[in-house]
């Protein structure tokens, strides 16, 4: 599908807020996305055990010394769902919950990730021991959750999906396409490489139902690139028309 | 160590000589560095006011010399009596309390009982209460003596060199000042309870007018008149010098900025009317507005009512807490509760530390009135002011805890307190089961209302390190799969309402030690019973078993 730069009407311009199903909501990108865009998207924030640090349906910010004070971050709340997405039943349940709450899903952000760096031989060696889990969380869960959304909602609505510019963004990494010489990222990098290739195949297959699929591949954030630049790329992928892209976010001299 | 050995450690180690049995007696009731040796020396010089020494000196572990206390008293009453039959001894509060405990067979008697017990040895005892209004100077002096081990000076030999090398620990001085005030309070409460004859002397007056002071004491003892030498020259030299003045100025500046003890000038008549179990008047003010950093805490109802906060205190204050923690941890592990971390929390793979009631240092914020009020408001819960606060330390690889909800009783030695804060004094009443260690103690039975875990001095945390506090939906959840896992990130905190639903547990720390402050804020038992029923209040783990064995002081009980 040809890439276009035409942007659909964003929620800042119109009345209809986009519904975003976000995994990894208590992680670095998820947290930043909720904090920055809870006013623009209706966010179903999926997290495992780490608590969310944003206002949700069952938590809010409070000033301990002035409990009556209005705190701006309470103005926009995300809808929190706790789930272990390696459990197939939980994957289905998350989608059902999101649809029950908002009636649709316009954007799926697969940001949940398990990152275990270490040597393949020598050392503690647990990167090998946890390889299957790492591949599952980082590459398999995104295709399972995407399929669950497709089966529950998108498959029968290709026209509506196109009209609403519905899409999937998979959180990858520059490690998915670059060999870093630290010798520690093997399984993690492989999982992201797998995710990149899965993203391309998803884009090809999901085109039939009118849903775009892209990957976001930043370098380390914050640190080498800013979290803000990653967020901007994410929102740009959502509002744009591209599909099948692996969007690198790296230092300017590299990108 | 016998008395004869002990008295040799006073400034004037004359060979002790046995006098007659006393026909009248008095105690010089003092606090450390109150000028008591000065007063003792002046009085001994009269030859008619007894032979006061510090006969009840305690070992470093806080005990009187080995052997029956009766033997000690029999020896002391002869050593301390002058030819005219007047007995005198100088005694600090902690020594007096220990003497009482020994006479009471391990239980501190009431003031009346103690007077009767002492009266068997020392007829018609009277009390000379020596105090200082400048407790800040007194604390500096005490600190310096501790650090240099120079407790008195009789000549003009220079002594500054040793002290000059010391960088004074101002927070420690604040703790010592709080301790001095507490000792004074306890003396005052003791006298009030006895309605005893007390002559109150001020250190400054003793220094300025030694002859007049001696005259007043002899009058008080019905021993006058006394022909005072025109120029009575104390043998002891005032030890304060310009270095003391410098430390004092620094300490006063420190105290002005920080939550620390406030100076006091209260006299005997102004003391609490409560039983002498350690009133806590004049707690230092705590200004939360100045020490809280993050003012946007997360209040959540899921899986049960709790609050989480990161960056709780300003970096400066968080640093003080971490330093205070490390100072205690560096003392090592042992069984001496109140001094070092100890093991012994039933079913809990951790070390616990109990604060001494008047030695919280920077941790006092967690037992302060403003903090309690804040907690009460945040949870919309009426709290009684009874607080148990301590420290926990999990070494690397500590095992998972078990799911429990903390709706447990809390027993306190109760006493009136101006701001309504009653911290646990487990030497008087065991927190977990209400065992009383002194007959005059009133016990308050409360129930835990809010639990606090404040993480501090922990290495940077990343997922996979473990050591979280898990919050669960029910009692049979997998400990490894909490609804929420609160990471033990330094200077962050979780507070939760203790209810039949507040299941939580420590999750094994695989990579780093985990340290925390823990506290429970209590509510009236009847409120809890009305809300959930008495059967929901669970006894502490191990309490039933403990009933068969002598009660002992416990660590901050139950696991986090």
Q: Biggest β-sheet of chain B, characterized?
A: 9 strands, mixed
Number of domains of chain B: 2
Count of helical stretches of chain B: 16
CATH-defined fold name of chain A: Rossmann fold
Report, as a whole number of angstroms, the end-to-end distance of chain A. 23 Å
What is the β-strand count of chain B? 16
Q: What's the CATH first level of chain A?
A: Alpha Beta
Helix/strand-derived category of chain A reads alpha/beta
Low-confidence stretches of chain B: 1-8, 259-282, 545-560
Could you estimate the helical fraction of the residues of chain B in percent? 25-40%
CATH architecture label name of chain A: 3-Layer(aba) Sandwich
Q: Kindly report the average pLDDT value of chain B.
A: 82
- Put simply, the count of helices of chain A is 7
- Report the average pLDDT across residues of chain A: 91
Percent strand of chain B equals 15-25%
Radius of gyration of chain B: 26 Å
Main interface pair?
Answer: A-B, 21 and 29 residues
Commentary on this structure:
The complex is a heterodimer of chains A (255) and B (560). Chain A is an alpha/beta fold. Chain A has one domain (18-249): Rossmann fold. Chain A is built from seven helices and eight strands. Chain A has a seven-stranded parallel β-sheet, sandwiched between helices. Chain A is globular and about 55 Å long. By secondary structure, chain B is α+β, with helices and mostly antiparallel strands. Chain B has two domains: 3-135 and 181-233, P-loop containing nucleotide triphosphate hydrolases (Rossmann fold, 3-Layer(aba) Sandwich); 313-546, q2cbj1_9rhob like domain (Jelly Rolls, Sandwich), CATH 2.60.120.620. In chain B, the strands form three sheets. In chain B, strands 5, 6, 7, 8, 9, 10, 11, 14 and 16 form a nine-stranded mixed β-sheet that branches. Chain B has a four-stranded parallel β-sheet with strand order 2-1-3-4, sandwiched between helices. In chain B, strands 13-12-15 form a three-stranded antiparallel β-sheet, with no helix packed on it. In chain B, helix 6 crosses helix 11. In chain B, 48% of the residues are buried. The interface between A and B is medium-sized, with 21 and 29 residues. Strand 3 (59-62) of chain A pairs antiparallel with strand 5 of chain B, so a sheet runs across the interface.
């Amino acid at each position: 599908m040809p890439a276009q730069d035409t942007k659909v009407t964003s929620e800042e311009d119109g009345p209809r807020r986009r519904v975003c199903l976000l995994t990894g909501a208590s992680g670095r990108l998820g947290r930043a996305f909720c904090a920055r865009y809870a006013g623009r998207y209706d966010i179903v924030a999926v997290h495992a055990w780490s608590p969310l640090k944003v206002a949700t349906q069952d938590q809010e910010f409070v000033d301990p010394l002035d409990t009556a004070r209005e705190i701006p971050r309470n103005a926009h709340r995300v809808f929190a769902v706790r789930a272990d997405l390696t459990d197939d039943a939980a994957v289905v349940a998350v989608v059902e919950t999101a649809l029950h709450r908002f009636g649709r899903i316009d954007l799926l952000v697969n940001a949940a990730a398990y990152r275990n760096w270490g040597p393949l031989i020598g050392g503690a060696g647990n990167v090998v021991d946890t390889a299957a889990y790492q591949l599952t969380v980082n590459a398999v869960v995104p295709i399972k959750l995407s399929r669950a959304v497709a089966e529950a909602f998108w498959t029968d609505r290709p026209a509506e999906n196109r009209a609403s510019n519905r899409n999937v963004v998979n959180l990858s990494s520059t490690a998915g396409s670059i060999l870093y010489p630290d010798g520690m990222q093997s399984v993690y990098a492989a999982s992201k490489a797998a995710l990149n290739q899965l993203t391309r195949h998803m884009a090809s297959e999901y085109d039939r139902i009118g849903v775009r699929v892209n990957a976001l591949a930043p370098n380390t954030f914050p640190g080498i690139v800013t979290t803000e630049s990653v967020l901007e790329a994410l929102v740009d992928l959502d509002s744009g028309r591209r599909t099948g892209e692996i969007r690198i976010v790296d230092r300017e001299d590299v990108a | 160590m016998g008395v004869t050995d002990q008295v040799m450690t006073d400034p004037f180690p004359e060979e002790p000589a046995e006098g007659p049995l006393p026909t009248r007696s008095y105690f010089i009731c003092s606090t450390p560095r109150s000028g008591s040796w000065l007063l003792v020396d002046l009085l001994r010089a009269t030859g008619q006011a007894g032979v006061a020494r510090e006969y009840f000196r305690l070992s470093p572990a806080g005990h009187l010399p080995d052997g029956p206390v009766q033997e000690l008293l029999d020896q002391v009453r002869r050593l301390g009596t002058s030819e005219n039959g007047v007995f005198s001894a100088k005694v600090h509060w902690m020594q007096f309390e220990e003497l009482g405990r020994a006479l009471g067979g391990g239980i501190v008697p009431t003031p009346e009982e103690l007077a009767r017990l002492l009266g068997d040895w020392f007829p018609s005892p009277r009390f000379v209460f020596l105090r200082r209004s400048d407790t800040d100077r007194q604390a500096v002096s005490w600190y310096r003596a501790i650090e240099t081990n120079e407790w008195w000076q009789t000549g003009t030999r220079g002594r500054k060199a040793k002290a000059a090398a010391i960088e004074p620990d101002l927070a420690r001085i604040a703790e010592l000042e709080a301790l001095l005030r507490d000792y004074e309070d306890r003396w005052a409460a003791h006298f009030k309870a006895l309605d005893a004859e007390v002559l109150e002397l001020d250190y400054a007056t003793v220094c300025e007018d030694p002859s007049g002071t001696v005259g007043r004491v002899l009058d008080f003892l019905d021993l006058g008149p006394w022909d005072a030498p025109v120029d009575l020259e104390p043998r002891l030299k005032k030890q304060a010098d310009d270095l003391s003045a410098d430390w004092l100025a620094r300490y006063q500046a420190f105290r002005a900025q920080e939550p620390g003890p406030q100076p006091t000038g209260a006299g005997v008549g102004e003391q609490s009317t409560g039983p002498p179990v350690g009133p806590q008047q004049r707690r230092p003010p705590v200004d939360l507005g100045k020490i809280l950093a993050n003012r946007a805490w997360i209040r959540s109802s899921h899986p049960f009512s709790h609050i989480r906060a990161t960056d709780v205190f300003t970096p400066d204050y968080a640093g003080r807490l971490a330093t205070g923690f490390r100072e205690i941890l560096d003392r090592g592990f042992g069984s001496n509760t109140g001094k070092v971390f100890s093991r012994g929390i039933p079913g809990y793979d951790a070390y616990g530390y109990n604060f001494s009631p008047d030695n919280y240092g920077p941790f006092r914020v967690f037992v302060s009135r403003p903090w309690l009020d804040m907690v009460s408001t945040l949870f919309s819960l009426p709290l009684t002011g009874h607080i148990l606060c301590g420290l926990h330390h999990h070494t690397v690889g500590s095992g998972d805890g078990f799911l429990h909800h903390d709706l447990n009783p809390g027993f306190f030695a109760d006493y009136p307190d101006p701001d309504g804060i009653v911290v646990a004094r487990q030497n008087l009443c065991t927190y977990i089961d209400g065992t009383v260690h002194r007959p005059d103690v009133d016990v308050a039975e409360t129930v835990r209302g809010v639990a606090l875990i404040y993480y501090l001095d922990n290495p940077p945390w990343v997922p996979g390190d473990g050591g979280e506090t898990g919050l669960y939906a029910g009692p049979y959840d997998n400990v490894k799969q909490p609804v929420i896992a609160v990471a033990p990130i330094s200077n962050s905190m979780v507070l939760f309402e203790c209810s039949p639903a507040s299941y939580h547990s420590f999750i094994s720390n695989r990579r780093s030690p985990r340290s925390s402050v823990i506290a429970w804020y209590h509510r009236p038992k009847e409120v809890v019973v009305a809300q959930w029923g008495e059967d929901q209040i669970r006894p502490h783990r191990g309490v039933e078993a403990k009933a068969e064995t002598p009660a002992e002081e416990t660590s901050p009980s139950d696991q986090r």
